[in-house]
Amino acid sequence: MQKIRLGVIGTGLAWDRLHLPALQQLQDKYEIAAVCDTDIEKARGAAAQLDLAQDRVYSGHRVMLRREDIGAVDVLVPIPENFDVAQDVIRAGKGLIAEKPLAATLEGAHDLIALKNRHGTKIMVAENFRYEEFSGIIKDALGQIGEVAYFIFNTGADFEKLEGKVYGLINDKFVVCDTKEEFFAKIAAMLPSVQG
Ligand SMILES: NC(=O)c1ccc[n+]([C@@H]2O[C@H](COP(=O)([O-])OP(=O)(O)OC[C@H]3O[C@@H](n4cnc5c(N)ncnc54)[C@H](O)[C@@H]3O)[C@@H](O)[C@H]2O)c1
Q: Both 123 and 183 in a single domain?
């Protein structure tokens, strides 16, 4: 199988900690052809890790999308930017690997799906839970168990204690806050460079 030549837009935390390690295990399938970040130093840092030449480093994604040697693009920009950047990737005729959420609004996500249908583009939302074994088991069961009235998914947290709280993983730590403002402030304090 011919390798997919990949462009990367957004070389922040999710690139460094999630996508790059995964792609390093898939080197028989993907080859990284170019990287882009509006913060050019981040793009250069990512390129250095990959041994990419300087002419494969961009600060503007539209210029990078003109490259004919890119077949698909991995988009890892902050959520408010997802829609515009993903739209440009589809219009450039490249396959799209999008982070979740696909867009900041449901309407935006529907628009992107309509656009990819018009262009016949292949897209994939990189939501890793979707590819866990349990997702396949649930999918198979759906055809057999009739109409679903209620669904709960618990990965081990005590949701009764967490009711009314705002919680999530920040820098691999499970953080619980009383308000979303407090939670976002914790993200800003623990990961000052993260916009996404
Ligand atoms: N960090 C995580 O654990 C995680 C998990 C799941 C999903 N995601 C998703 O991944 C995406 C990125 O998150 P992150 O944590 O890496 O954020 P981040 O802020 O660390 O990185 C985003 C990068 O995109 C760059 N950028 C911003 N606008 C750009 C543009 N128009 N063109 C090119 N580069 C641009 C920024 O300079 C930054 O380097 C978000 O959509 C987020 O929802 C992140």
A: no
